[in-house]
Amino acid sequence: MGAGGGGRSRVLVLRALGLGDLLAGVPALRGLRRAFPGWEIVLAGPEALAGPVAASGAVDRLLPASAPGRAVPTRLDWTGPPPELAVDLHGSGPSSHLLLARLRPRRLWAFAHPGTPAITGPEWRADEHERERWCRLLGFHGVAADPGDLRLAPPAGPSPAPGAVVLHPGADAGSRRWPAERYAAVAGELLRRGHRVALTGGPGEDGLLGRVVSALPPGPRPLVYAGGLPYPELAALSAGAAAVVSGDTGIAHLAVAYGTPSVTLFGPVSPRRWGPPPGTRHIALWRPGPPGEPSGDPHGQDPDPRLLRLRPEDVLKALDEHPEVVRP
Questions:
Q1: What is the DSSP string of 4-49?
Q2: Which residues lie across from 223 on neighbouring strands?
Q3: What is the distance between the alpha carbons of residues 318 and 306, in angstroms, rounded to a whole number?
Q4: Is residue 193 domain-resident?
Q5: Would the CA dihedral through 297, 299, 302, 306 be positive or negative?
Q6: Per-residue pLDDT reduced to its tens digit, 102-113
Q7: Are 203 and 309 in the same domain?
Q8: How far is CA 123 from the centre of its chain?
Q9: 200 plus 311 within the same structural domain
């Protein structure tokens, strides 16, 4: 898809990442929408995220762009005059800076980096929360954005499993993937208590869901949504759930966006950087180690030691004590 602007001034925003990344960037996108109400806002990101991009209410056009992993795309299919403003919400640079700079925007907003000394911006802080980081970038340029402006409007369709406790064992990286047998222990106990339980996974995670089901004790079985639900169904399932239990991945951010009670299991990355907003609705479980323990790799292959310190009883206790989880 090109980026024809129909004569309007255009803002091009780069955030060619995953679902959780997009949702963490919604406050910044909405800040841009308020600051440039008559301009066309174009988001360069994966085509698969068209649903949540539209639900944000902050973007006029999606310009498909992606790369393996969290890499920067090699090119953008931009047509017409250069954007009036390009905003790098993708990373710290310089690769993402240079990708946007090649389009010759009139202004380019990004974090300062020695590899792109011509760009004036604030200093990157590695330990900053993701939502606050991008709002601070806009604030540097005089645009107000509220890191708490996260909520999405309710999905149009009904949930395929209203009132279920949704367990999502998958994640993009093994370091954020809690063992399947522990999800099975949680699911089995919830089913024994009379909860409706739904298992979800992303594309390519059917084998993982199968391992969870195989490890269940005898008794009631969960609903299994294999193959990766299309976004409208996943959004409706999350919005209509009694609770969402997952690792630090996209569906955890979706639960926050829809105000669904959630329990999120953190491992390599502290919830101070990627966790839910404060309050009792969204519970972040994390077991940091002793001082001096090496930092975790959020993109590593093996489950992080901090994640493995969490036991099924920790998750069940969090659900038991949650003030908003409806009991069967």
A1: --TTS-EEEEE--S-HHHHHHHHHHHHHHHHHSTTSEEEEEE-GGG
A2: 198
A3: 17
A4: yes
A5: positive
A6: 999 999 999 999
A7: yes
A8: 23
A9: yes
Which residues constitute the domain of residue 77?
Answer: 10-140
pLDDT of residue 70: 87
Instruction: List, in sequence order, every beta strand (DSSP E) within the chain.
Output: 10-14, 40-45, 61-64, 85-88, 107-109, 165-168, 197-200, 223-225, 243-247, 262-265, 282-285
* Measured distance CA(316)–CA(310) in Å, rounded: 11
Domains held by the chain: number: 2
The tokens describing 10, both together, are: 């255009």
Looking at the structure, tell me whether residues 185 and 315 fall in a common domain. yes
- pLDDT tens digit sequence for 238-297: 999 999 999 999 999 999 999 999 999 999 999 999 999 988 899 999 999 888 788 899
Paired tokens of 121: 């911006």
CATH code of the domain covering residue 34: 3.40.50.2000
| β partners of residue 263 | 245, 283
- What single string gives the DSSP state of each residue in 181-193? HHHHHHHHHHHHT
**322: its two tokens:** 């949650």
Token code pair at residue 154: 């309710």
Q: Is 269 within 8 Å of 252 (Cβ atoms)?
A: no
Q: Which of 273, 251, 19 is nearest to 263 (CA)?
A: 251
Q: Is there a domain that residue 151 lies in?
A: no
**Stated length of the chain:** 328
Amino acid at 324: E
The answer to whether the CB of 267 falls within 8 A of the CB of 35 is: no
210, 180, 249, 46 alpha-carbon torsion, rounded to 10°? -30
Do β-strands 61-64 and 40-45 pair in parallel, antiparallel, or remain unpaired? Answer: parallel
